[in-house]
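> call design_seq(struct)
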């Protein structure tokens, strides 16, 4: 079913000044690393490896996978037969680090492949499972694998619309509105991770539902978020100056949402409304046992 990839070979070239620092680093054990495959579902990603891409002492590195070599973005990330073209992030500090591990179980690879499929279909994801860090770790690992910038928010009973939309703060003796996590993720095309979706109050549900379904949101400063397709149609009909007069802001086409929650009523929380639940593609995440790990 899948190609038989026996190993992945990483080669690199170092300058004389940085060779000593590299050999002393945690990943500088040898000049060539061989990563043996553990699962029948192969995980192949083209271009720089996670540790090598973030190493300050590496100047020119190239990854060779089955005869292919790529030295810069865009990259191709594949999980089995599903692949995606990954572009260089604008803000590297917003990309998760040290969450993705090369040695993955078949179950973890299946979860990553499923999320990748939904990402390609422009669908939002709801990872449901018992309490623990498995769901969050999986979401951050996918963001690191695909070099996606993330925005994170944890919902609680005290979460209001201002925590998702905009906050009014005092700056230089004047009050100004500052975009919060949901607005920044929508306008910049980032991955919005919402944890504790079962704790969302009634006043927050309509906001989330409108953002997930229509990619729209009314902001406190008078602006209005509009989905990418609708904004492009209005741009052709009326022009950019007219849209600026209307204070319309385009939602990036790469904007995605990964919600993390507990199964209710088995656990304590608010059950999701059917309209909100229908916006997600749900998957059950069960923590791995000691035998599987």
């Amino acid at each position: 079913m899948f190609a038989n990839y026996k190993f992945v070979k990483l080669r690199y070239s170092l300058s004389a000044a940085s060779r000593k620092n590299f050999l002393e680093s945690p990943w500088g054990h040898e000049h060539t690393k061989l990563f043996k495959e553990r699962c029948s579902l192969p995980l192949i990603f083209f271009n720089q490896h996670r540790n090598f891409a973030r190493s300050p002492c590496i100047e020119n590195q190239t990854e060779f996978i089955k005869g292919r070599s790529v030295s810069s973005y865009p990259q191709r990330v594949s999980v089995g037969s599903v692949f995606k073209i990954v572009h260089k992030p604008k803000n590297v500090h917003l990309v998760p680090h040290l969450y993705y591990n090369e040695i993955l179980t078949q179950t973890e690879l299946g979860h990553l492949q499923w999320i990748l499929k939904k990402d390609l279909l422009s669908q939002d994801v709801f990872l449901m499972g018992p309490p623990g860090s498995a769901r969050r770790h999986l979401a951050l690992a996918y963001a690191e694998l695909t070099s996606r910038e993330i925005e994170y928010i944890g919902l609680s009973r005290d979460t209001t619309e201002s925590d998702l939309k905009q906050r009014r703060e005092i700056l230089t003796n004047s009050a100004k509105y500052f975009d919060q996590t949901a607005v920044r993720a929508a306008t910049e095309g980032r991955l919005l991770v919402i944890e504790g979706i079962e704790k969302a109050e009634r006043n927050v549900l309509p906001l989330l539902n409108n953002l997930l379904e229509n990619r729209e949101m009314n902001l406190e400063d008078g602006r209005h978020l509009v989905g990418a397709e609708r904004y492009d149609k209005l741009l052709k009909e009326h022009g950019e100056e007219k849209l600026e007069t209307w204070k319309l802001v385009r939602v990036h086409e790469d904007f995605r949402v990964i919600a993390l929650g507990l199964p209710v009523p088995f656990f304590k929380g608010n059950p999701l409304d059917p309209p909100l639940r229908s916006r997600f593609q749900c998957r059950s995440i069960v923590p791995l046992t000691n035998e599987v790990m």
